[in-house]
Amino acid sequence: MSTLRAFIAIELDEPTLEALAVxxxxxxxxxxxxxxxxxxPGNIHLTLKFLGEIDRALAPKVGxxxxxxxxxxxxxxxxxxxxxxxxxxxxxxxxxxxLAGAVAAAIRIAQRLEDGCxxxxxxxxxxxxxxxxxxxxxxxxxxxxxxRQIGDLIRxxxxxxxxxxxxxxxxxxxxxxxxxxxxxxVVEKVALG
Length: 193
Hints:
With 193 residues, the protein is an alpha+beta fold. It has a single domain, classed as Cyclic Phosphodiesterase, Chain: A, CATH 3.90.1140. The chain is 29% helix and 40% strand. It has four helices and nine strands. The protein has a five-stranded antiparallel β-sheet, sandwiched between helices. A four-stranded antiparallel β-sheet has the order 3-1-8-9. A hairpin with a 7-residue loop joins strand 4 and strand 5. Helix 2 packs across helix 3. The radius of gyration is 17 Å and the shape is globular. It starts with a strand and ends with a strand. 31% of the residues are buried.
């Protein structure tokens, strides 16, 4: 069986990627930031459903599922605004940028994808969908002091809008894990509207 490591996502446009790169650069210069593995700006996206390793033969069915899930959905706009951390700012593991605007549309599509993927035999996500853009992951061996510094630097960041993102398509993505990091490529692009 030939497999494909895959996920379903909203790709970001160049202005949004550039704005997030500026935010990351600003954060990198702060105390504690060296304990974060920053996501390459070109790899930042809004994951709607992580599929994991799936049989390649399932990819066309996932493509058809995406088309069914976005049927009747029109393009929408998200606002990238504010920073935060999972699970919280006292013990950050993931540094993220938040989303506002037509978030309900993204949540609705993600829920349909979750249900549809379950029908295809793909495991459900245990955590509820929380729309965000991962900017970096705190290293596992980061000290409590470094984690505190990371939480503090996130608290000090402006909470205003970073960028606006026009969403007009949903993408089935392939993820190849390489020594230099993950490389993502589009398997299928499904237009909204």
